[in-house]
Amino acid sequence: MAETTFGVKYEGPALADGRMPVRDLAPALLALGELFTEASTTLYPDRPPPALDIHATRKGSFDVDLILSAADGAWEATEQLLGGDGVTALINLKELLLGGGAFSLVQFIVWLRGRRIRSKEPGVAPGTVKVTVDEDGATSLEVPQEVLDLHGKVTIRQRAQEVMKPVGRPGVETFKATTESEVTVAVGKEDLPAFAAIEPPEEEEEIQDSERPTMLRIVAIAWNEGNKWRFSEGADDASFFATIEDPGFLDRIEQRTESFRKGDLLKCTLRTRQRKVGDTLEVEYQILEVTEHIVSAGEQLRIDPPDSSEADAA
């Protein structure tokens, strides 16, 4: 399994004994996990998002080791996008968010401090954009295009804000991200206004909203909130995520009366919504009704929805 370990640390006199209230830490870590999920699906929608797991804590501050991991082989094909194998790809994703390599999203938010972007143009370095925030062009910065793409999503900026919320508590002074002994990014109380300055959602324009019958091949199954599975419409087509909206089909899965094998087909009604949000085109897929499930002869896939007892324990 491809994985990389990094640390996040909240520092301040209130944390000197190595203890932190769950009500402060849990929402921040959940937001960090969602930040990685949204960043991954924004930049690389054809890859399953990586998982973020907690590893350990230490006294003197509240210091947490986290493991960012992807299913074995699932990120190996990202070499052309991220410049390396699965582990390198995960490291680069982490660096785009929390620093350590190129200028990161968190660093960009701190630098921007809520100022409106006046202009964007190609940067000198390949793959970068020159961002200008004033009328005369005197204040500008070159950032990776991926960082600008991430910053363009309001929900991603909101997740970053939630990660920094504990710093606003009395006695908590700093958030730091670390790799081994290196601090890759640090955010103090003086930087919090930059994260609070979240712009309202950009104006949306509906481009297309259509429904059509089709046959989809199941690429990956997920039992989680939203019921987002990955599908393709042909052997050479790029895969995409779609939410399952058919209550009868979901009920059969819940009751364990539906089994799946690798390469199964779904004859269904697919809804495609395309919107223009600011300068970005967004596409959303929904499976409204499954009219036929064609089971292949491939290897059986396990899809056990969590029991209520497991959900309560989680």
Structure characterization notes:
Helix 1 runs antiparallel to helix 6. Helix content is 27%, strand content 36%. The model is unreliable at 77-84 and 305-314 (pLDDT under 50). It is globular. The two termini are 23 Å apart. The longest helix has 22 residues, at 22-43. A 5-stranded antiparallel β-sheet has the order 2-3-1-7-8. A hairpin with a 2-residue loop joins strand 13 and strand 14. It has 314 residues and is an alpha+beta fold. It has helices at 22-43, 79-82, 86-98, 105-112, 145-151, 154-164, 192-196, 247-254, 308-313, and strands at 2-11, 51-58, 62-70, 119-122, 128-132, 140-144, 174-179, 182-188, 204-220, 228-232, 240-244, 260-261, 265-277, 280-294, 300-301.
| H and E order | EHEEHHHEEEHHEEHEEEHEEEEH
Roughly what percent helix?
25-40%
Largest sheet: 5 strands, antiparallel
Q: Could you list the spans in which at least 5 consecutive residues all have pLDDT below 50?
A: 77-84, 305-314
If you compute it from the alpha carbons, what radius of gyration comes out, rounded to the nearest whole angstrom?
Answer: 22 Å
The neighbouring-strand order within the major sheet is 2-3-1-7-8
Mean pLDDT: 81
Distance from first to last alpha carbon: 23 Å
Tally of discrete structural domains: 2
Which class best fits the helix and strand makeup? alpha+beta
* Alpha plus pi helix count: 9
β-sheet strand percentage: 35-45%
Number of strands: 15
Shape: globular
